[in-house]
Design a protein that fits this description.
2 copies of one chain form a homodimer.
Chain A (H helix, E strand, L loop, with lengths): L3 H8 L3 H14 L2 H12 L2 E2 H8 L3 H13 L3 E6 L2 E6 L2 H15 L2
Helix pairs in contact in A: 4-5
Chain A binds a DNA duplex (30 and 30 nucleotides) through helix 5.
Chain lengths: 106, 106
DNA sequence: CTAATATCTGAGCAACTGTTCAGATATTAT
DNA sequence: ATAATATCTGAACAGTTGCTCAGATATTAG
């Protein structure tokens, strides 16, 4: 016979997947990044426009975008002297939507 | 006539809501906390069991739980010398589910 | 009562994060 | 060619975070 705890132990996400899961949430868990991602959920945008929208320096936005790109959450595409960024992950949009629903009902 | 940017500017989450949104994700964006929350999504549990499940000291777990309680994500209920914790937020379960789906398809 | 168990708490510290600043690179306009 | 615009990058610095450690409190067992 197996205890209830052992049952949970089997279903519980592994330490490794816990790390990966936390990594995913960390990418969104910042005021600047979450607004960048929300903007990109609405449209593909160049860095300068993102910077204006989220009221942050272009340098800071560029740093955050390269972080998001390393996490494979956004993709970039160069057009002339602009670099357009777009969401490159279906689930991120879903996470932001659930997050916004949470704000609405609290 | 209004530009596309102005359209996005109107729809974009405000700086204040961006902060609140980031706060919500921050609460989940940690390897220890995300596993604690996943465990609590499976059952109501006392601190000592949570500590064993996530392989972290009871002190560290207690610190994390008080943080999650301050964020109104978990609730506590004392029974004898045990303190049972449980999820106190519908959306957190949803966020973890979407996060796990993300791991599965990548 | 005393010992054992369960939980909490504050201080301290090492690691991490997000920004600014200075400067590099690339593209386009004049 | 020169200037202006757009983007990127590394270093540095302040602020935050998550842990350990020591010790406090509370409940129950013997």
């Amino acid at each position: 016979m197996s205890s209830a705890i052992e049952e949970i132990e089997r279903e519980l996400v592994s330490a490794i997947d816990g790390d990966r899961l936390a990594q995913t949430f960390k990418a969104i868990a910042d005021p600047t990044r979450v607004r960048i991602l929300h903007a990109l959920a609405l449209a593909e945008l160049p860095v300068c426009d993102i910077a204006r929208l989220v009221q942050t320096s272009e340098s800071a936005v560029s740093h955050q975008l390269s972080l998001l790109r390393a996490a494979q959450i956004v993709r970039r595409r160069k057009i002339g002297r602009h670099v357009f960024y777009a969401l490159d992950d279906t689930h991120i949009r879903g996470l932001i939507e659930v997050g916004l629903a949470h704000l609405a009902h609290s």
